[in-house]
Amino acid sequence: MKTRSRPHTVGIVSLGCAKNLIDSELLQKQLDASKVKISFDPSSIKGIDTMVINTCGFIGDAKQESVETILGYVQAKTEGKLKHVFVMGCLSERYREQLRKDIPEVDAFYGVNELKTIVGDLGAHYNKRLLGERMISTPSHYAYLKIAEGCDRKCSFCAIPGIRGGHVSRSSADILKEAKGLVDNGVKELIVISQDTTYYGLDLYGSRKIAGLLGDLAKINENGWIRLHYAYPHGFPHDLLQVFREHKNICRYIDIPLQHINNRILRSMKRGLSSAKTRKLVETIRKEIPGVILRSSFIVGYPGETDLEYRELLEFVRETGFDRLGVFAYSHEEGTPAFKLRDDVNRKIMQERLEEIMQVQEGISLNKNLGLLGSNLRVLIDRREGDYYIARSEGDSPEIDNEVLIPAAGNKLKPGTFSDVSITSAESFDLYADPLKKLGLRRK
Asked: What's the gap between Cα 48 and its chain centre?
């Protein structure tokens, strides 16, 4: 596609996961360096000439959201409210030709590794010296830190390796340089992500290096938090647990997607870990990191999942008592090994199973929250919303986990700062608290 004259203002809408958000932030940095005006606010297209939609193509619901978003901006273009619509990201990578055919009003489609091309087509100059640099679009006190691209796992239900390619670790030097820059610019919380964070370093250094990397990040961000997401259970590096104990600023929080507990389904999913070993891993993590907050995710309705197999999963959730939990209905994705299987679980049954597990989890979460009444927590203030400051403990990742609500009346708190609070009330997924200073108390 020929390079366009520079648009007056480019709007960027980022859908899907935090890894996608980082790609959008990389694009934003390149455009900003060429003095292109940018809007990261999807709520308004006023003053925007060109809209860029960074899409997700992982599962059915995400694909539907991406298509609907594209069609919405195409309609705005048809009505003369936009001049151009560009589409990038996972959906575009996976279905580019079909999308070109079905939505010809889109000016151009780009895959996941075409940053240089889209920068040029937006009338900007691609600057190699900005490689890896980005403009943070999250609140300025936390940022995602991507340590690798792609995935070498062969999970039968997952389309990511076909979209993003194999696992490619970033060098530790590049990661630490980026982390230092973020911390120097006021970031208090670094959220470490990749498709499989515990695989980090195996391709570059011949062994898993996530433990050492987290330790180094903890030294860089001594006065803040380091949070770990997406720790794959098979091959979990046990030296990682020692690092959690050694560094108090590494949040006692591990996001470890287990997906199921039934042996037949785990084998079919190609997860590489048996039910017994999965249970043992959870037990070990909790023993080695006292007070750890465990987040996991599960899939219901996988091909052939019987009621008995589902009940085994339900009972596992009930007896294990995960601190945080996400449940997803199986999505039958073309190009994945599981696509060859018969998608034979009724959608209504899938939804019923999902809702039943989440109902159980709601009770677990409420009991855990009630157990925190009267306790003191250190929280990070995210924002003010109405009559409350909204904060998070080290056990809560932004946007997906619990929140701590602190009355705004009589309290002067600043977003992006830490505060010690006492828990005064609890609901299933929220806590209420007062600052210790207001109560005349000190954190123990």
From this structure: 28
- CATH class of the region 142-370: alpha beta
**The domains spanning 142-370 and 376-439 adopt the same CATH topology:** no
Evaluate whether 322 touches 364 at the Cβ level (below 8 Å): yes
Alpha carbon 442 to chain centroid, angstroms? 34
Q: Which residues of 325-335 are buried (b: 16+ CB within 10 A; e: fewer)?
A: bbbbbbbbbee
Nearest CA among 145, 155, 150, 68 for reference residue 111 = 150
Task: Tell me the fold of 376-439.
Answer: OB fold (Dihydrolipoamide Acetyltransferase, E2P) (2.40.50)
Q: Which helix (H) or strand (E) holds 231?
A: none
Q: What is the pLDDT along the chain (444 residues), one digit of tens a residue?
A: 544 555 678 999 999 888 889 999 999 999 999 998 888 776 778 889 999 999 988 788 888 999 999 999 999 999 999 999 999 999 998 899 999 999 999 999 999 889 999 999 998 999 988 877 888 889 999 999 999 999 999 999 999 898 889 999 999 999 999 999 999 999 999 999 999 999 999 999 999 999 999 999 999 999 999 999 999 999 999 999 999 999 999 999 999 999 999 999 999 999 999 999 999 999 999 999 999 999 999 999 999 999 999 999 999 999 999 999 999 999 999 999 999 999 999 999 999 999 999 999 999 999 999 999 999 999 999 999 999 999 999 999 999 999 999 999 989 999 999 999 999 999 999 999 999 875 554 444
Tell how many helices (H) and how many strands (E) occur in the chain: 14, 18
User: What are the backbone dihedrals phi and psi of residue 151, each rounded to the nearest 5 degrees, phi first?
Assistant: -160, 140
233 contact partners, CB below 8 Å, separation of at least 6 = 256, 257, 258, 271, 273, 278, 281
Whether 204 contacts 171, CB under 8 Å: yes
Q: In the CATH scheme, what is the code of domain 9-130?
A: 3.40.50.12160
Q: Phi then psi for 47, rounded to 5 degrees?
A: 80, 0
Q: At a CB cut-off of 8 Å and minimum separation 6, what does 359 contact?
A: none
Distance of CA 263 to the CA centre of its chain: 27
Give the number of other Cβ atoms within 10 Å of residue 223's Cβ. 8
Sequence-ordered alpha helix ranges (H) in 4-122: 18-33, 60-78, 90-102, 115-121
- Domain coordinates in residue numbering, the chain: 9-130, 142-370, 376-439
pTM score, whole prediction:
0.91
Dihedral angle, C-alpha 192, 198, 203, 206, nearest 10 °: 120
